[in-house]
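Q: Focus on the chain.
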Amino acid sequence: MSFASLGLSKPLLQTLDQLGYNKPTPVQAKAIPAILSGKDVIATAQTGTGKTASFTLPLLQHLTTGPKVKANRVRVLILTPTRELAIQVAASVATYGEALPLKSSVVFGGVKINPQMMSLRSGVDLLIATPGRLLDLYNKNALKFTQLECLVLDEADRMLELGFIKEIQKIIELLPKKRQNLLFSATFSDEIRLLAKSIFNNPVQIELSPRNSAATRVSHTAYEVDKSKKTALLSHMVRNRKWQQALVFTRTKKGADQLAKKLRADGISTSVIHGDKSQAVRIKALDDFKTNRVRLLVATDLAARGLDITGLPHVVNFDLPKVAEDYIHRIGRTGRAGAEGEAISLVSADEVKLLSAIENLIRQTLVRETEIGFVPSHSVPLTQLSSQPRKPKRAKKPKRR
């Protein structure tokens, strides 16, 4: 099957050919014709399978026809949960639509709003936005939805996890009732099903992987280690295995900063990205990592969606995520577009229940390994840690008066 057989226009086919994209992925093969026909679509597929192109390509083609967009109006709206994902989608739109006479824009919080208001004055064909900033722009009369033809919810489950459900409901109430609706995600929770049921009209459902399954070309290993020795083990891995590029996830922003500081002190070039960093700092950190100016990028789950790093070989869970589904999104940064990847989890005794939740979710047991040359801090296997009875605390003797 070729992209030409899906019904895409000649300018888009030429762009794809220049990019070296010859064959559509399974999700693209199913979604593109359905979207071109104007149907609502709900698609679930593993991270790295080409979901963004699945909706951007047919929407760009659709936008080449129809009325010219008016001032402060938008024809297609793509909602994303994070700034990083918004920027990535905007980059894809710019790349695929390079040969088309269309205008697109991206808006998100954390930066000045006035330049974004200016970019909307003459209207945009396609707008990528985070929910909060979109509502800010609407409340400032910088944006009207009277010309909106299509709404895309990209990684909607993450938007719900981040607490955007009220914002999404407000936005939907503002939109024209007659429109096309699309939803793409790597996982599909019960909450998403309820949301979809309320806004979608007889959608085409595309489910190309088992629900909440992990990427198939990624190896999964777990290393038992005392919490206080995790940094030493990570540093040892980087040096012993001669890693040149690895994405490391921590559970908290403070933990990310502390880990990066220790790694730098150990002579390992490291950048940090999380919600407290300014957009300029986050962009530079990501750029330094992509261009191999630093070896490690330490991030919170903010970066679990939206980071598209070509050929990223390793993802490390320095801390296991509290929400098991986030494991899927974290490791989805590696093993993309058919490449091989490695997902490593450093597991301490207090994280055994989190590990069990992850294994139950992905229906797969992480291979237990030990690092050559690194002395384990305890000898109790992870499979036994959760069943170790706690010693009862001795009652304190009353003080004599």
The domain at 4-207 is CATH 3.40.50.300 (Rossmann fold).
